[in-house]
C-alpha cells in the first residue's frame, strides 16, 4: 500500500509525440542516427541495434603475461608500415568511439611524448585526415578533441581518454610515427557494422554539440519539460515488500529517486519489474553505485551524503512497470521518500528491458576471473561499478587484472583489456588520486582498517555500449596472471533484448570430408589439411584440437543452409592466428560482404574466432553461397580456415511469450536467463568449451 503518494504532471503534452521513432532493425540508412549517436534521443540508450558489434583493440599481452607491453622493444603493433607502426586497422563501415592511452616510468604515469605522432587514415586514403602529436589528442588543443569529450592523465588519474566518435565508411587505419620507442599502453573501442551500412567518414566537422552538452550538464540530462512524476513517502517495515509505484501503460522511466538515511541503504532492496519480468532485485546502494565513501556524481547516477539517490537511466516498458522496496529482516522501520518520472508512450523499436546484476567475490578463486556479467540472451551492456580490493596485503597488484569479455558464444575475447584501472580510463593504479567525470571516475582509493587496499570505480558505456545478440560473459582477471585472490563487489547495468537470440543454424567443418561435401566446399588452387592443437586467448586458456585447411592465394566456395533465418545474420570464422598477415575478401550470393585486412599473429594463443555481419541481400532464401578469396599479404603468408558457422535469429526463444502483442502476460517469464548452459556461452574463465568438431559429429550421428 502507498501512503502519502501524489502524482504531478510536468509538461507532458507533446513531448512524446515530438520525438521521432527510429527503426532499430537492419543496417543504418543515410540520415538515420548511427548506433553510437545515442545523444540524439536518450531513449536510444536502451535500444539494442541490429547487426552492430562493439570490439576492442588493445596492447594486451598476447601470451597472457602480467604487465602487457613492459619489455623494451615489445611494440604491440599490428605491423610496421614503412616508418609507421600500425596500432589499429579495421575494414568495413564503423567508428572508433573510445581511445585510451597511458605512458609511464618507475611505476608512475608521465605525459605523452609529442615526439610521437598519431595518424588516422580512412577508406584507403594515403594522406591522414588526422595527424597530430599524441598529447594533442587529449589536451584540449585540437578540436573536435576537446573536453568533456577528452581528458589527459591529470583529469583521468593516470590515463588519457577520448570519446570523440571517429566514423569511417570503408576502412580505418591508425598508425604511430616519429619516436616509436615510447612505451605506450593503448585501447581502441570501436563499432563494426554490416558491410551495407551507410556511415559518413570522419571530416572533423561532425555535429557533436548534443554529446558535448550532455556530458557537460550538471543537472538532469533529459530534455526539460516532459513526463509524469509520482512522489510519495512510505514507512518500510522489516520483511514486508512495499509497492511504491505502478504504471499499467507503455512508457519509459526517466528518473528514479529515493531518499533515506545513508546507513540504511544496504538494508533496503529495490525490485523493478517490467512487462512481467523482474530485472532488478538489489540493495539500493548497489543499484545506485553508492557503496563507496564518496557517493557517485555521474551522468546517470547521483548520490549524496544527505541520503538522496537518483537514477536518470532510461527504463522502457510496453505494458506494465512496478517499483517495490523491501527492508531487511531485523532492521528498524525506516521512512523512504520516492520519486518516479515516466515518459508516456511506446518505447523505441528494439528497446531492451533495464536490468542490473550484482556479483560478489570475498575473496575470488585464484586462477578464475571474477565474473561480473553472465547472460544467455540478447542485450546490451552499458556500465560497471566495482569495489575491488586486495587480500591480506596493502599491495595494489590486484588492479593489474585485465577485463575479458566474450560476446555471442565466441571463444576468442571480443574485448580484452590491459588492467582494471585502464578499463576505468585511469592508469598506473590511479596515480593522481580519486576523481569524478560524467562517464567514469574513482570514488575511493586507499588502505582500509584491515591493511588491505581498496578501490571503488565506475564507468558508463555510452557511445561504446556493448550489444550482444546471443550471450555475454564478462570477467575481471585476478592480478597480473590470474595469480591473486581479490575482493570484488560489482554491479553491471545492461538491457535485456526481448527478441529471439542469435542461434547457430549451420556449421561447416573444413577438416571433415563429409562436412565439405555436404556444403559444396571447394578450393581454387593448392590446399593442405593440417591439425592444430592450441589455445584461445583468455585465462585459463581454452584448448581445442582440430583439422583445417592451409592454402595460398585463391578462393574457397561453400553453401550454408539458412532456412528460417530472420533479421541479423553473421558468418563466424575459426582460424589459426599463429599465421600472421592473413587477408581476404568475403562475398555472399555474389555481393561484396567485407572481409579482413592484415591480421596480427599470435604464436602463443593460436586459435581465434570472429564474426562478420552480412549485408541485407543475405537475409532471405533457403541457402547462402559464400566465397572467401585470400589476398596476397607478402612473404608467402598462408590463409587458414578451420570452421564456419552461420548465425541468425529464429522464431521463438524470446524473453516474451506469444502474448506480447496482445498484452496477455500469463505465459511470460518472470526472470531473465543467466548464462547457465555450456552450449550457450563461450569458453570463459574456468570453463573448457565443447569442441566444435565433436558437437558437429554428435549432431551427424
Overview of the molecule:
It contains six helices and 46 strands. It has 701 residues and is mainly β. Among the domains are: 189 residues, Jelly Rolls (Sandwich), CATH 2.60.120.1390; 151 residues, Jelly Rolls, CATH 2.60.120.260. The strands form nine sheets. Strands 1, 14, 16, 19, 20, 21 and 23 form a seven-stranded antiparallel sheet that branches. Strands 2, 5, 6, 9, 10, 11 and 13 form a seven-stranded antiparallel sheet that branches. Strands 24, 26, 29, 30, 31, 32 and 34 form a seven-stranded antiparallel sheet that branches.
Write a short abstract of this structure.
The protein contains six helices and 46 strands. With about 700 residues, the protein is mainly β.
Topology:
Layout: E1 6-9, H1 15-18, E2 53-58, E3 79-81, E4 84-91, E5 94-105, E6 108-109, E7 116-122, E8 130-133, E9 150-156, E10 159-162, E11 166-168, E12 171-178, E13 184-192, H2 209-216, E14 228-236, E15 242-247, E16 251-259, E17 268-274, E18 277-283, H3 284-287, E19 301-303, E20 308-311, E21 315-317, E22 321-327, E23 334-344, E24 353-361, E25 370-375, E26 379-389, E27 403-407, E28 415-416, H4 420-423, E29 435-436, E30 440-447, E31 453-460, E32 466-468, E33 472-476, E34 487-496, E35 502-509, H5 513-518, E36 522-523, E37 527-535, E38 543-551, E39 554-561, E40 566-576, E41 584-588, E42 591-596, E43 607-613, E44 623-630, E45 639-641, E46 643-649, H6 692-700
Antiparallel strand pairs: 1-14, 2-13, 3-4, 4-12, 5-6, 5-10, 5-11, 5-13, 7-8, 7-12, 9-10, 14-23, 15-22, 16-20, 16-21, 16-23, 17-18, 17-22, 19-20, 24-34, 25-33, 26-31, 26-32, 26-34, 27-28, 27-33, 29-30, 30-31, 35-46, 36-39, 37-38, 38-45, 39-44, 40-43, 40-46, 41-42, 41-44
